[in-house]
Design a protein that fits this description.
Elements: H1 14-31, E1 33-37, H2 38-57, H3 60-69, H4 73-86, E2 95-102, E3 109-115, H5 127-133, H6 135-185
Antiparallel strand pairs: 1-3, 2-3
Helix pairs in contact: 1-2, 1-4, 2-3, 2-4
Length: about 190
């Protein structure tokens, strides 16, 4: 459950704030990017991310849960059919808030909140390890492949040589055994 906010509400009361955030979420899903005050953007982010998580599930119950917040069916349809597949592999962080300065009239701090729809690029474990490890395996891979090919050929040749040597030894052993038995019988 989300943590209740402290301080004054965005609107006149809790119902007004809930409707205001629902309208902001509808506009965000319709336009994929909106400009609003920093406070409203920060309050909208958890709501929008929770609704996107429901949309990723994609079942009827999730659609009905989203419809309790967003009353516009076209916005819900766009959320489920267009936005959810684009963020399917993303594990969170579906929105981005960028501060853009103050509004001219009342000097209110403004921000742009937008959906992050780019494909996920996983980060390397750490910059030092990946920088040190990246060139080393690349340089080692080429000789390693050659040695692998050589070793695969060498055991085959060794195995053939071993088999022929084993045949010669078994032939020598049988002739030796035959010679010994012939000497014993004399």
């Amino acid at each position: 459950m989300p943590k209740p906010t402290k301080g004054p509400r965005l609107g006149g009361g809790p119902a007004h704030e809930r409707l205001l955030l629902a309208n902001l979420a509808t506009a965000l899903f319709t336009h994929k990017r909106i400009t609003t005050t920093e406070t409203k953007a920060k309050r909208l982010r958890p709501l929008a991310e929770r609704l996107i998580t429901f949309a990723k599930r994609g079942d009827l119950h999730a659609r009905r849960r989203v419809m309790t917040v967003i009353r516009d069916k076209s916005a819900v349809h766009e959320l489920f059919t267009e936005i959810a597949p684009l963020v399917a592999e993303r594990e969170g962080g579906y929105t981005r808030i960028t501060k853009i300065g103050n509004r001219k009239g009342d000097n209110a701090p403004m921000a742009v909140i937008e959906l992050v729809l780019e494909p996920v690029n996983p980060k390397p474990k750490s910059a030092k390890k990946s920088a040190a490890a990246a060139p080393a395996p690349a340089a080692e891979e080429a000789p390693a492949e050659e040695t692998v090919e050589e070793t695969t050929e060498a055991p085959a040749e060794d195995a053939a040589a071993d088999e022929s040597a084993a045949d010669e030894t078994s032939a020598d052993e049988t002739t030796d055994a035959a010679d010994e038995s012939a000497e014993e019988s004399k």
